Predict the 3D structure of the following.
Amino acid sequence: MKESCPGSKEITNPSPEDLKCVHCGTVNEIWSDEPDTQCKSCKKTIDRVMKINCLMWCPAAKECVGTEKYEKLTKAMK
Ligand SMILES: [Zn+2]
């Protein structure tokens, strides 16, 4: 098993975080590997700035978090 960097831990071991809806102010739960979620109150999509910048420059990012998640997250960051 390859050792992963601290930045990718949020993706390989996601944890719930609070995300406040910009539309209605409701606090929603979002997992640290999700770039967006749907507000439970107003049903609008809430985007957020992903903290996981290492994916953008790390040459091993793809194998670090897995191809599927890598592509989903890098797409969301553009
Ligand atoms: Zn809302």
About this structure: The radius of gyration is 14 Å. The mean pLDDT is 86. Strands lie at 16-20, 27-31, 36-38, 45-47. The pocket of zinc ion is lined by residues 21, 23-24, 26, 39, 41-42, 44 (CB under 6 Å).
